[in-house]
Amino acid sequence: MTPDSATGYSYEECTATADWLLKRAPERPLVGIVCGSGLGGLAKMLKDELVINYCDIPNFPQSTVHGHAGKLVFGTLKGKPCVCMQGRFHLYEGYAIQKTTMPIRVFKLMGVETVILTNAAGGLNQDFKVGDIMIIKDHINIPGFAGHNPLVGANDDRFGVRFPCMSDAYDRDLQQLVRAVADELDFSVFMRDGVYSVLGGPSFETIAECRALRQLGADAVGMSTVHEVIVARHCDMRVLALSLITNKAVMDYQSEKKANHEEVLETGALRAKQMEKLVSTVVSRIPNTPTHCS
Ligand SMILES: O=P(O)(O)O[C@@H]1C[C@H](O)[C@@H](CO)O1
Ligand SMILES: Nc1nc2[nH]cnc2c(=O)[nH]1
């Protein structure tokens, strides 16, 4: 069998999509933001915005999940040009893993230097409370253990190297910046940091799975983000990722609690304002990558 990228998009297809978008965008974005479940309000922070529905963008997948609007929003945040995905793609929607991450490569080709990924996640760490915001410092790619990685297939060196390093996936300076901004905003009481584990979904975890993930070192569990991080790092963008702890994972056989998507969206709505303030202040302080003169 010849290795290929038949389940994904080629460099040329991603470039065609990026060029189509750049013809319409007010300017090249420097920051790309992905809104997690119930966190689509982040896009409303953008000024002078241009909204494009995913269904109008060539090659783009479509959002199918409640809480993911399916709109790409260009605009500025405190003067910095940004693009924001109101809606991401998950494995459980039936997309090939390479398709769920295709927009991240389009970000890169449009000029994005820094990607900010947000998600809703279940808290495994017993010290975490619903409404906490966790700065992701590392991840455990559970589907990856079985070979599900968005970089599977022929490697196109124009995007990045065959074997990218992941020990520095989450930019430490950006994590420090979030902590500093959270202190200033008086948000420290609900800020945490930790390890995010991804599962394929769409079923929520069993009690035994939650216990196993905790023993593996995970603080939160979700169904996204990690694959986007891998693709963003492959093409050398800086990554910041934040989880909103929307529910506590059920770890105890005596518990009557049941994870559900409605609670996820409700918690998103309750913390939306603080999440927006945190992200917009961080974006305004992200240093641009210095341009190199030859
Ligand atoms: O896109 P994210 O990771 O925020 O969405 C989470 C995981 C599932 O898609 C959904 C479960 O409620 O929320
Ligand atoms: N897998 C998973 N994803 C989530 N997204 C929000 N909450 C959860 C959760 O408890 N488990």
UniProtKB/TrEMBL annotation:
Any GO BP annotation: purine ribonucleoside salvage
Keywords, in A-Z order: Glycosyltransferase, Purine salvage, Transferase
Entries under Gene3D superfamilies matching the protein: Nucleoside phosphorylase domain
Reactions it catalyzes: 2'-deoxyinosine + phosphate = 2-deoxy-alpha-D-ribose 1-phosphate + hypoxanthine; inosine + phosphate = alpha-D-ribose 1-phosphate + hypoxanthine; guanosine + phosphate = alpha-D-ribose 1-phosphate + guanine; 2'-deoxyguanosine + phosphate = 2-deoxy-alpha-D-ribose 1-phosphate + guanine
Name of one Pfam family that matches: PNP_UDP_1
Pathway involvement of the protein, from the record: Purine metabolism; purine nucleoside salvage
SUPFAM superfamilies for this protein: Purine and uridine phosphorylases (SSF53167)
Limits of the Nucleoside phosphorylase domain: 31-283
CC per GO annotation: cytoplasm
EC number, as in UniProt: 2.4.2.1
Sequence positions that bind phosphate: 37, 68, 88-90, 120, 224
Entry GO MF terms: purine-nucleoside phosphorylase activity
Signal peptide, first to last residue: none
Annotated binding of a purine D-ribonucleoside, by residue: 205, 247
Record-stated family: Belongs to the PNP/MTAP phosphorylase family.
Biological role stated in the UniProt entry: Catalyzes the phosphorolytic breakdown of the N-glycosidic bond in the beta-(deoxy)ribonucleoside molecules, with the formation of the corresponding free purine bases and pentose-1-phosphate. Preferentially acts on 6-oxopurine nucleosides including inosine and guanosine. The purine nucleoside phosphorylases catalyze the phosphorolytic breakdown of the N-glycosidic bond in the beta-(deoxy)ribonucleoside molecules, with the formation of the corresponding free purine bases and pentose-1-phosphate.
Complex formation: Homotrimer.
Protein name: Purine nucleoside phosphorylase
The organism of origin for this protein: Danio rerio (Zebrafish)
